[in-house]
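Pilot study result, target chain (186 residues):
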Amino acid sequence: AVVSTQSGHYGRGMKQLKKYDPYWIEEPTSPDDVDGHAQISMALREHGIGVATGEMCQNRVMFKQFLKLHAMQFCQIDSCRTGGVSEVIAIMVLARKFGVPVVPHAGGVGLCELVRHYSMIDYVLVSGKIDDRMCEYAEHLHEHFTDQAEIKNARYVLPYRPGFSCEMTEYAVDTFKFPDGTYWNN
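Predicted structure:
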């Protein structure tokens, strides 16, 4: 009953925001409430507004449930919460099966360095598309990584070095490792 009330509320609230032409609403309810997302998604469909979610999901089973119930129109994988590259590729394949674009979440430390690989994998190996594809970029803390994320012409630049681009600089490790780093000892 509460979820139905929430979905009705989002439908009414988003109708008022329709004049601003929002593309999606992100995680409009508890991130693991698949049914709630489905109801909200259904309420927003008539307004042409999608639901983006998934950045808090840990595995393909959760994504499968979201996708089967049409509870997401944008699949937000998170590089650090899912079980690695194989799990993310499985999620990308599921998203493709359901016609849902993958839009990686990259709002935390080092996530920009990681998601550029997933965006490339989605384009080259899974979807072959860039339409409806976006990827977050946060302009901070890149200096702590040896292979920093770079943006040109509103697109991530592919890394030049092998690996997953998550190696931290010696300075960052020496400064911030807990509890021995200099940051914690000052």
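One observation from the pilot: Residues 1-6 have pLDDT under 50 and may be disordered. A full batch analysis is planned for the follow-on phase.
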